[in-house]
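Can you please make up a whole protein chain along with its backbone structure tokens because I've never seen that pairing?
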Amino acid sequence: METIINFFSEHQLQIIAIAKNTLLTIFILIGASICSKLLKRAVHKGVYRLSKHDEIITKLLTTLSGYVVYLIAIVIILDLFGVNTASLVALVGAAGLAIGLALKDTLSNVAAGVMLLFLKPLKKAEFVEVSSYTGSVKDLGLFTTVLETADGVFVSIPNSTVWANAIKNFTRNEKRRMDITVGISYGDSIEDGLAALRELVSEESRILIEPAPQYLVHTLADSSVNLQLRAWVATPHYWDIYWQTQRKIKDKVESKGITIPFPQRDLHIINGDKK
């Protein structure tokens, strides 16, 4: 007991300083936790509104804001215990450079992810084609972009690959042009075929009036004259209208007495005298 009393007497100032710094550390961590929650809530509301309800970028910035608060708290705590934070920052910087060189491919994904998040060539739930993959965007993180294909397959693409390739976004624009092609026989009337296409359009109220639909002689093929309907529709209705029109076009054309030809080959056998 006397030894403990003597130790406390000799190191009283150091023990009090450590106890004080420990209590301050606890208060700083509690304060950091509260500030982190408040800041994340405020950033979430502000970014969600400014980004026009973009969930992906809102989630990223909200998470980063929470980390920043804890990083500042750690620096303050280290300073309380006499750690040279300037040297620590230099050491962390050097370590970061070494790690960056070792993980340059991974960091390229992060850089590409940041560009994708802020330039927004694709957003969550949009239907896109990227690097030969087609599907709905399920998530866009700092490292990968996740798609779900039309048949329900999970596809994870590195962000650097997404950024380095052309992105075809099928849902970004409000309207899309629908091209429907049908072949008629060379012996049939082109005007009757075009009239059948006009009737199809008149029966589908979801086809846009502006831009006006076009009725064209597309190509003179080997066994048919190919007529084409080019009509604009609202993007959300594109596939429904496309499949419905494809389903009706055969009956509509044939109702005009027009034949839809298909490739045929005539085989002529010539009997020669055997020698």
The two ends are 131 Å apart (CA to CA). The chain has a mean pLDDT of 83. The chain is about 50% helix and 20% strand. The first helix runs from residue 2 to 10.
